[in-house]
Amino acid sequence: MTDDRTHRIAVRDLTLAYGQTRVLDALTLPIAPGKITVLAGPNGCGKSTLLRAIRRLLKGTAGQVLLDDVDIAKMSGKDLALKIGLLAQNPSAPGDMSVEELVRLGRYPHQTMMQPWSPRDAEAVERAMAGTGVAELRTRPISSLSGGQLQRVWIALVLAQETDVICLDEPVNHLDIAHQLECLDLVARLNREHGRTIVLVLHDLNLAARYADELVFVREGRIAARGTPTELMSASLIGEVFGVHATIITDPVHGSPVCIPASRSSAPKAAAEKVAEAV
């Protein structure tokens, strides 16, 4: 049995359903502190649901989520917001809100009736905007921003919250490759320089393998496998989890494994072998 004391977050036998549909099925997952953990798996496998359950936006019907050995169900909403930040998929805000106004919302958990705004809040907002490169956009309405700019503003909001744990659900969704790398490099820098515990949901297996310390494959509401990208990026395991024939090669620049999908697993295996010969 895994020793939860070595992990910042421990999900234990968590079951969660939408109506009669069970999405998480007695799922157990320890998440190490100060690491980047990436959740990957087929559409509808429960990745986003798991992330929302970790932030207690969804409540399970059984099991528990522990943060530093404390059941999050017993924590106040404010205490939890001071410890775990979440950027959900496709967040929204009024288009006439300025960049700075949106980032300032990240300080809400830190404020009190006696002190609704403090110099520390202002400093945190400035650091978050500077760190994401959006300080020069502070007065711009968010409706005027490009997709990449807006995503950096949302990440700045989460950074302004100053939590040790950051959960990001598809943070590079709808971004071009340049902005994908920009956002994920920022996340990696937060982890490397500030020791933040990062939990990411990513669909792109090659980006997941490049940035993850630990890669977790989710399938049908359970953990199918977890380990380093090198351990998990195998043709057999990708075939089992994602239902595709694939060839795995090594990225000549970064040294991380790269998945080259050839065909659905129902197609002849010769298709994957042909790709292997080509590379």
TrEMBL record:
Keywords recorded for this protein, A-Z: ATP-binding, Cell membrane, Ion transport, Iron, Iron transport, Membrane, Nucleotide-binding, Transport
InterPro entries recorded: AAA+_ATPase, ABC_transporter-like_ATP-bd, ABC_transporter-like_CS, P-loop_NTPase, Siderophore_ABC-ATPase
GO biological process, one term: iron ion transport
Membrane topology summary: Peripheral membrane protein
SUPFAM superfamilies, per the entry: P-loop containing nucleoside triphosphate hydrolases (SSF52540)
Chain ranges of the ABC transporter domain: 9-245
Domain of life the protein comes from: Bacteria
Location relative to the cell: Cell membrane
Primary location class: membrane
Family recorded in the similarity comment: Belongs to the ABC transporter superfamily.
Protein name: ABC transporter
